[in-house]
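If you are new to this repository, start here. Below is one unmodified record pulled from the training split, so you can see the exact layout before writing a loader.
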Amino acid sequence: MSVRQTQSAHGKTQSPSSKWTDKAVYAAGAVVWRIVDGKLRILLIHRTKYRDVTLPKGKVDPGEMLAETAVREVHEETGIRVSLGVPVGVSRYHLASQKQKVVHYWAAEATDRAIRESTFVPNREIAAVEWVSVKKARAKLSYPVDLEILDFFAHLVDDGALRTFPVIVLRHAKAMPRSEWDGADAARPLTERGRRQATSIVGPLRAFGVRKIVTSDAVRCVETVTPLAQELERKFVTTEKISQDAWEDGTDDLRHVVGRRVRSGKAAILCSHGPVLPGLLSEIALATGTIQGSYLSSAADLEPGAFSVVHLSATNPGSGIIAIETHIPKV
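And here is the target side for that same chain:
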């Protein structure tokens, strides 16, 4: 899997692309935050073995995508279950083995409920967790690379762009080729690889707190979101308004579907087709007053089963796209 983080028209988020290679060790984590008595606090961990203070993070497990790694590691190290917000950078440094370690970070709000349900107790790995101000975090963190991530996070705070919600544009997984299918195009099913892709993206999609699923009524799109809907125990909404058939004959209504999702202010997925994706991204930009540019084309250029997460302000969606990141399944 690789992650692309694409600069928005506001220029608020930009980090280099990362590709999986044998020469690097990949990890993921988060700057976990909460508001206490009207003041921002972030979570630091005190590690037992290394006697240091750092941000929660950990290495990718086999088969994982980075977003699900971040959520899992935060829970394992702090006992807090979070959903990911805006990406806040990538740190790179060399291990004793001379391999490069690449760590992707997101902002992640800890809700009151998540904190109440935390199962953390001091253990062999983590001696303590501590909520501190950004200023105190700068003084306590042990490593310069963590300070760089914290600085990026602080810029989001200064811009008023910390609390966000995602609208995720998902291309359906690998479907049977038209040349091998005798029925209607909308009835084409997923291939075996496509079914594996649909299963593999459940974890990373859940990492962004998705609750609403809207999909084209084409079979290949419905089959793509079914594993996620089953995992969430939620129904999905099918609509021909974002289908390829409607797009080709001019009866689609992307603006209506996108507008509802932006106005709702809640995490949602729109599952559609390659030719339709540029229109969906364009409508999100229009709905949020974002200047359009090549970054939208990049976010729409998705492989089967890949998805772009468009982060929007939860307090003022009309302020524009905060960031876009693209996730590509390994399957």
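Two things worth knowing about this chain: The first helix runs from residue 66 to 78. The mean pLDDT is 92.
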